[in-house]
Specification:
The structure is a homodimer. Chain A has a six-stranded mixed β-sheet. A five-stranded mixed β-sheet of chain A has the order 1-6-7-4-5, covered by helices on one side. A two-stranded antiparallel ribbon of chain A has the order 2-3. The longest helix of chain A has 14 residues. Chain A is an alpha/beta fold. Helix content of chain A is 28%, strand content 32%. The radius of gyration of chain A is 19 Å and the shape is globular. Chain A contains eight helices and 17 strands. The N and C termini of chain A lie far apart (41 Å). Chains A and B meet through strand 2, strand 3, strand 4, strand 5 and strand 8 of A and strand 2, strand 3, strand 4, strand 5 and strand 8 of B. Strand 16 of chain A pairs antiparallel with strand 2 of chain B.
């Protein structure tokens, strides 16, 4: 039985309505995405303030600790309590975090639209990542998944200004998380994967966001061999995807896509043999 | 005469070409955006690693210091030297930064797809910001500017995966900066505004990125009364725009736009009087 920390279940309204006027001078009531600061305290030590849509704050906090490599397993976490009265998330660990101060002292703030903070360390780590070589994704399943993603009822459709991430098995969406930042969405999925004891080896990760270095690293760290984005990619994102051998598809819109790396896992409908890329 | 630090002029290739294959199994050579780590050292003290497109690294580093409130004026900066051999930018100050360690100790890493790091402090600051009330932007000029932005020859058109920011006076684009992250692009413009001794009071700031809290705060801090985005906005972005009285236009595409705040500065072509929003 998977250990489960004591969790609050605190969410914020995903959208709020504001007044605007358009180019015809018409007054409109426009739904916009929520954005709330959530300050994370780890054993009473202030760690970070995340600007979030606030839909999955507990999973987000756990995933942040996971992806920042501050905790190695869910078993280390005793409780995650979000209190929107004070915009804070109090995380208590079972036995404290060994060398927390030195871990935090070492952190480097990185950007490229990412939370970063441990990018340097992550780069050292990626060469040790091994993704399953035997998994495949066939084009027909891929298209069915893209269709499910497209039909998913999202905050983005209503209000825009958010990024979405989905964790899928074949064409089934297991989780769909949206947030103000790409990295919050992927962190929330990482946290929920721990909570639900879900392994990444047979999963597909979809994001509306760009495939920058940090995005590819996080996906690889979750052990997910397939990474699909509606958007483009950067050179470093491509380099890292090549190095870890992730199957990466970009510009996934409608019937179009570009397969950039790891083509041996992608089986085209027409082809009998895996695609080359 | 404006003080100008000694600057390197180091840039990286904006795009690189990689191989991909599309849904028809055709092999393509695809240009993608560069992404390079740039570690900033302030008086030999490691500060941050920015993931950047590398087009304006010196202005980016200066703008980062400015927007992080680590330096109050360009006069404090003696030299900015970027060396891509070691992916580093060495900044030396004239007389050191008073209380640098305490400033850095206080910093909170924030996200929402932003560099953040000083968000908490910024929030305290915004109430002291006063934007010029007498400036106006008329709709015809606005449309001409949007047309100039649309026609601008950008990395985005070639490779995608970057955000663009423009600083404009009336319909004239004074600067156009693209980068991997929204915040790098706005920081690079903030740095270049210092280098060229440009005041924000009669300027318009355009961004392809979403209008989140940090984006609106940075624009207000640069003293720019007009903020225009192709994308949407968040609730906190809207709240801050309202509080500082910035004229904010979102969803600016083609002939369409939504005016959200500060309508008194925006004069519609049809109307004799300012718009209401």
């Amino acid at each position: 039985m998977n250990h489960r920390p004591r969790l609050s279940h605190a969410t914020r309204p995903a959208t709020v309505e504001v007044h605007s006027s358009n180019e015809r001078g018409e007054h409109l009531v426009t739904p916009i995405a929520g954005e709330y600061p959530l300050t994370i305290y780890l054993d009473k030590r202030e760690l970070v303030t995340l600007m979030t849509l606030g839909q999955h704050p507990e999973a987000l906090a756990i995933g942040y600790l996971r992806n920042q490599r501050l905790v190695a397993s869910l078993n280390e976490i005793e409780s995650v309590q979000v209190d929107w009265e004070v915009d804070s998330c109090a995380i208590s660990t079972v036995a404290g975090i060994a060398g927390l101060e030195s871990k935090l002292a070492k952190r480097t703030v990185t950007t490229g639209c990412g939370q970063g903070t441990v990018f340097g360390n992550l780069m050292d780590e990626i060469d040790s990542i091994r993704l399953p070589a035997d998994r495949t994704l066939d084009e027909t399943t891929y298209y069915r998944l893209m269709d499910n993603v497209r039909r998913y009822d999202s905050v983005y459709k209503t209000a825009g200004a958010v990024h979405g991430c989905a964790l899928a098995k074949d064409d089934e969406i297991l989780m769909f998380v949206e947030d103000v930042g790409r990295h919050n969405a992927v962190d929330a999925i990482a946290g929920q994967m721990w909570l639900d004891d879900i392994d990444g080896a047979d999963k597909i990760f979809y994001t509306t966001g760009r495939l920058t270095s940090e995005m590819v690293i996080k996906c690889a760290q979750m052990g997910i061999p397939f990474l699909v984005s509606r958007s483009g990619l950067t050179h470093m994102g491509h380099e890292i995807a090549r190095r870890v051998g992730i199957t990466m598809i970009g510009r996934a819109t409608g019937k179009h896509y570009l397969l950039f790396t790891g083509g041996q896992r992608f089986v085209r409908a027409a082809a009998a043999s895996p695609a080359s890329a």
